[in-house]
Amino acid sequence: MKSIVGIYRASQFSPNMEDSDAAILNAVADRLRQSGYEVTCVREERLVKTDVEAADVVLTMGRLTSTINLLQEVESERVKVINSPIAIRHCERKRFTQILMDEDVPFAQSRVFQSSDNITWDLFPCWLKKGEGYAEVAEDVVYVRNADELAVQVDRMRRRGIATLVVSQHLEGDLIKFYGVAPLCPTDISPEGEVGKGAGFFSWSYASDRPDKFGNNPTNHQTQGYRFSEQALQEISNHAATVIGLDVYGGDCVVSDNGTIQLIDINDWPSFSRCREQAAEKIIRLIGY
Asked: Which residues, in sequence order, are bridge partners of residue 41?
């Protein structure tokens, strides 16, 4: 029998979403227990090596540096970790921004700066974002209308001790949230639907249909329902997840009035709040039971 450990995300990384984030891990754990597996779930703030070193599989929503370091250590021994610690590191904003641009994933025009730099940017409005770690408070992601505002917000982040910043073009259009679970192999998924037991999972919804943890959704105004290719959205999102290295992923994109799709964010293990039950069924297949 496989021994499986689940790791809940620290509350600092789930602002206003702690219960929702925990719910997807609980849904996966419940299904595994019903199938006869031994499952233990722990909070990452209390995580120690003995919690995971004897596990066969670790399902982690953790983002603390100590969590990632520990999981990288046990993964190098024999433990299967979903998502991999390296992929979680790649979800740091400065890292995924550079990776997605380097890999030619359709992505909002962006640049990574040091806060000590003389930052020049001429695409307004735009977004100024903390480049280190993950967004934890509303001040980590700021809407900026002009160069004067940008200078003020850069100074505020600098005073907060933030060394790396990302400036991104603001995209007009419909803001969409997407959720995915990687297929076990590329042939397991097709535009026509599932192919085999290992088929992946993909779902999307308009951001206006659900609450936003930082209240930024109104910046994109009301959803217009612009037409776009759902297959293209899935392919772009899967490509982004693949180059980051994620098996369980989510993110945000904007669809313009002509149907163009551009990503603005990607993250490890979202809450799957609108499709939790379906996603949980697919996540357990990654374990390979």
From this structure: 6
